[in-house]
Amino acid sequence: MATAGTAFAAPSASTPSPIESTQDPSVGPDFVGTPAEAQPLDPAPTIQPEVGTLHGDGGNTKAFNGPGPLGSDLQVSSASMEPTVFLWSPDGRLTGTESPLLSSKPGSAVTALDPKTMAEKARWEAPEGQTLNVYVSQRADGTVLASSREGQITVLKREDTADETTFTEQKTYDLAAVGLLEDGQGLLATAFDETGNIWFTLGGVGNLDQSTVTSTKLGYLDGEGKAHALDVEGQRVENGMAVQGNTVYVNTSPAGTSDHADAEGYFYALTAGTGESPEVLWRQTYDAGDDSKPPHFSRGSGTSPTLLGDRYVAITDNADDQVNVEVYRQEPAGEGESQRVCSVPVGGENPSGVDNAMVGYVDGGTSSLLVQNTYGGPSFYQGDDDIDGSWNDMSAMPGGMQRIDISDDGTCSIKWNNADKLKAIPVLSTETGLVYGYGQEPDLAADGTYVWYAEAIDFRTGETVWKKRVGAGGHYNDNWQIGSLGPDGTFYQTVEDGVVTFRDGDSAS
């Protein structure tokens, strides 16, 4: 374990050039639908500790308490750059994460970005030989928690003055150096709890790059840097964690001799203990099915846990034919109660699979989840195909998104179904009541022309309100990445060649 104090700033803040369309976008309509009127929802509860993450916050909810575009005089722009995960601080500062695990590009860095131009204001590069993970988080005070697949954890501090922005290394921990990483294991994710412990999971995404991993460790570094770890044989972690206060939720997938037909995965609730390993508050098994679903990365559940306020937490299983949304109580079940609250099948009459985390929102006594059917989607692009090749074609996937409501008494029901085919991870604006996603024109895609659109879906009804064209060809493919909303109402979508943005024009009321 080591402590460092080196500061990093960008040499110059240049604005990236626009993304090039590699096919003709004009074959598709420019705009479909009509601009929306805002239908505000109650603000989503703030998950503590308050952090910006890949999935919006520490509960992976992707519910933003701010505006989004209504579709009036939409202004579209793009920036050709490393595909980036966006981490927002409450005061509107934007921090980005570049990782070769996001795309075919080699970047491995944490960046401070201008939200309007995407120009870099500061940059911290992962050390040579270290591959930055995508599960980076940022506290409200600018503290950034980054980690590498090779086992290094770095705590950075972002500081912004009138003259410059810098990242300063505060602490570095090396899990490999203290013997925590066994053969085949990689560090996958890290997270702060409310006390300040640094939680970590060792694993790997089985169908992407870690097929040999046969065990995992779930653990944390305490305030003195001491590691406390729970060894789990026959399982691996393939997703991120959710954190509520000092409780951490994480699911595992079958691996090694446990990877067989009719397999089981685990879902844990953990907290810091007094001994050598975390305290297990509860553990549930889920149906991991016979095998992974095409073309999904994960062998078991494809979702990071989603918190619903302080009452429920949800994942999907990987049951054969159709997967299910599984909803659990966050707190250990009381006498006569079941830890699992309900199970709801995904996909209607279609085969289903889920490889994206769900959107979560709580309004009074009703909790809601948005779940996508990503079964049969195109493969993740790793630079091994023509930029306009078949990896762009989403036309054959069944697609669809469902809203599932959980009532105060634990009754679960399907509120609506939307048939759109989306593999990018959507986000919700509570100020507009719209869900923002990213897809393509399916009829054109079936003929080999890939025209990409941002779209808005009414959270209350499931109706697609509008779609706006952005570009065509593989550079504009979302490649399974997540969207984000800025505090000024801009919708950001990471794509293979950078980022595209959508904001209402000056004529919007």
Explain what you see:
It is a single chain. The chain is mainly β and 509 residues long. The chain contains one helix and 37 strands. The protein has a six-stranded antiparallel β-sheet, with no helix packed on it. Strand 23 and strand 24 form a beta hairpin. The protein is globular and about 60 Å long.
List the helices and strands and how they pair.
Blueprint lengths: L6 E2 L22 E3 L17 E2 L10 E2 L10 E6 L3 E5 L5 E5 L10 E5 L6 E6 L11 E3 L3 E5 L4 E9 L4 E10 L11 E7 L5 E6 L11 E7 L5 E7 L1 E2 L5 E3 L2 E8 L8 E9 L7 E11 L16 E3 L3 E5 L7 E6 L10 E6 L13 E5 L2 E7 L28 E6 L5 E7 L8 E3 L4 E7 L1 H5 L4 E8 L5 E9 L10 E3 L5 E5 L2 E6 L6
Parallel strand pairs: 4-31
Antiparallel strand pairs: 1-13, 2-34, 3-10, 5-37, 6-7, 7-8, 8-9, 10-11, 11-12, 12-13, 14-15, 15-16, 16-17, 18-20, 19-20, 20-21, 21-22, 23-24, 24-25, 25-26, 27-28, 28-29, 29-30, 31-32, 32-33, 33-34, 35-36, 36-37
